[in-house]
Amino acid sequence: MKKFEWYPQALLNSYAQVFFSNNKWFGIILLLLTFVDFYVGLYGLISVSTALLTGYFIGLNEFNIRQGFYGFNSLLVGVGLAIYFQPGPLLLFLIIISGVLTLFVSLAFEGILGKYGLPFLSLPFISVFWLLRLASRQFEALGLSERGIYVLNELYLLGGTKLVQMYEWWNQFPFPSSLKTYFLSLGAIFFQQNVFAGVFAAIGLLIYSRIGFTLSLIGFYIAYLFYILLGVPFTEISYSYIGFNFILTAIALGGFFIIPNKSSYLSLLVIIPMLTVLSISLQEILNIFYLPVHSFPFNLAVLTILYGLKFRMDNRIGLSTIFWQQNSPEKNLYQFSNFMERFGKDSPIPIYLPFFGEWTVTQGHNGPYTHKDDWKHAWDFEIKDEEGKTYKNEGDYASDYYCYDKNILAPSDGIVEEVVNDIDDNPIGTRNLEKNWGNTIIIKHAEFLYSKLSHLKKESILPKKGEKVTKGDIIARLGNSGNSPYPHLHFQLQATPYLGSKTIDYPISDVWMRYQGMESLKSVANPPMGALVSSLSPHSSLKKAFSFVIGDQLKFKTTNNEEITWQVKRDYLLNRYLECENSRAKAYFKLDEAMLHFTHFEGDRRSMLYQFYLAAFKISFGFTNGLEISDSYPLHMVFHPKKIFLQDFAAPFYLYLKGEYRLRYPEKGKGLSLKPLELKGEVRKTAFGRTLDTASFEFFIDNTGIKRFHFQSKHSKNELSWIEAS
C-alpha cells in the first residue's frame, strides 16, 4: 500500500541507527546478522515493526520514523528478550508490548534530552530492558532460552551447508585473542555472541564508514591496553562482551557527534580510559541487582561529554560538534571542512561594509596602534588615491581627507541602541581622549550582536535611539571626533550595547578585496590591514536570475525538448532548496542581498539540477569587469564513493582530493544592465594537485533571467533553455 511506502526505509534505518547510520546496505547487513539466530532475528523484526507502526498510527513525525530514530531501541529490546527467553506465544506478546513501551520511553527521553540538544541514544533500550529483566523474575510461564545449542541447525535452515561452513570457519579461525574479543564485542551489540556475527558487523561497518571502522578499532584497543595497564584481566571483556561500549563511544565522540580530526582521535586517549573505569564500577553496582551493564557506560559517557562541551567559551582544542548531522562521519567531515573553508565561521546575521565605494583598511584586527587586548577585533577604514595618499593638498584640514564627510551606512538591519552626536571635530593632528569614541552610533542586530561606528561628524547621525534602520540606509557622515588625529571610520562588532564594550571576532559578509596584488570576492572575511575593500553593487539581471523566491517554479526545456520544472521550497528547518519535479533531486542554497551559495545536494547526480548545483555553486550579483570567483566543493558532493574510499581513512588528518569551482564574469559588462551576460566556469577534480577530471559550464543571462544554461563533461553534454518562471 502506498501509505506504507515509508516502512522499508524506516525498517532498515532502525537497524543501521544502532551504529548512527542511515545507510540502507548497512541496515540490510545488520538485519541479516540478527538472523544468525533465527528467533532473535524474527522477534527483533517484530519488535521494531511494532514500534514503527505505532509511531505512524499515533501521528509522529514521518521524517523521524523514516530515519529509524523511533525504531532502533525497540529492536534492541526485542533481540535482547529473544536471547533470554524461549520462543512462544507469551514471548511474542511480551515482545509486542515492549516494542510499544520502548517507543513511548524514547519519546520521553527525546523530550527531556532534546531541550539540551542531546541525543537519547540507547537509554530507552536500557531502561525498558532492565525493567523487563526485573519483572521477568515473576514470569514463571516464560521459559529461559537455551539459545546457542541449536545455532548450526538454524543456520542450515537459513542458508544451507555453505552458511554453516562459513560460520564454523570464522569461529575456528585462529584470531589473536584481542581481535577475537573485538569481533565478539561487535556481535554482542545485537546479542550475537559469536565471531561470525562480529566479522559480519565489521564488514558492514567498513562499508558504511571507513572513519567509523577505524575508530571502532582505536576505541577497543585503547581499552584493551588500559585493562592490561590496570592489571584487570581482559577476560572480563571477553566474558561479558561489554567491549562494544568502547567501540560505540569511540565512533560517537571520535567522528559522529564531533567532527573527526586529530583532536577527536587524540581525545579518545583520555575518554576511553575514563569509560573503562566507569564500565568496571557500574558493573560492580549492577551485579548487586543481577542486571547486565550492556550499553549504559556508553550512554553515560557520551551524554556527559556532549553536555559538558556546551559550556565552552571557545574551541581552542578543536573539538567541533556537528551543526548539520548527515549520519556519516565522512560526510560530516567533508561538509564541515568545506563550510569552514567557504564561510570561515558561522555568521547567521550578515554584517556588510558600512560605506559606498572602495576604502582601505588602515588598521585591522590586532592592529599596531589602538586595536589591542579586549578591543582588538576592529577595523579602521580610510579612502586612498592612486598614489596611496589619504588626503589632497597638504592635509592640514579635515576637508582635505577623501573620507571626510562621506556617507556612512547601516551595516545590517537593526535598532539603534545608542547615539552620541554632539562632539566637535578635532583639528588635524590632535585627539580628544576625554571623549575617546567621538560621535558614535551603536546598532543592535540580534541578541549579543551589536555594531559600533565611531569618529562621526557632529550632528550628522540621522536615526534616533530606538529607531529601526535597514541595511544600506544612510545613517551618518564621517567626521574627525574623539581619539582621531585625522578622519577615519572605526567599525567594530560587540556582544553588549555599551560605548566601551569589548569587541567580538565576527566577519564581514560579501567583501570584494584587493590585497597583496590579488583580487578576490569573499563570502565572509576579516579584511587585514592594507586591504582595499568594497561592496559590489548588484547587477539587476544577475539578481533577477538567481534570487529564487519560495513558491516560484522555474521551467526549462532540454535539447531533447523535454520539459523540466524546478520548484523553490523551504523545509521545516527553514532551509531553502530547489526541487526537480522529474527526479525529486534537491539542491539547498543560501541567499542574501549580494550572493547565492549552494550548500548541499540530495538525489540523482545524473539530473540537470545536480549540474546546475555545480555550476551555480557561488554567484555574486555584483562584479567588476573580468572578476573571477573561486570556491571548493565538499568532496562527497563531487567524487564517487569508490573514488574517495582511501581518502576517507586519511580525511581526519589530510585531504589530498579537491573539488574546485571557478566562475568568470565578462571583461566588459558592468554598468550595462540591459546587455546580456555570459558567465563561464569550470569544475575541476584534483588529487595531490594533479587534475583528474574537468567539466565546463556557461550561463547566458538577459533582463528576463536565465536564458540558457550549458554544462559539458566527458560523461555528458546537456543544455537547458529557459521557458518561464511563475
From TrEMBL:
> Which compartments is it annotated to reside in?
Cell membrane
Indicate where this protein is primarily found.
membrane
**What's the domain of life for this entry?**
Bacteria
- Keyword tags: Cell membrane, Membrane, Transmembrane, Transmembrane helix
Membrane topology is: Multi-pass membrane protein
InterPro entries linked to this entry? Ammonium/urea_transptr, Dup_hybrid_motif, M23ase_b-sheet_dom, Urea_transporter
| Pfam families, per database record | Peptidase_M23, UT
Family membership: Belongs to the urea transporter family.
* Protein name as annotated: Urea transporter
Q: Which organism is it from?
A: Fontibacter flavus
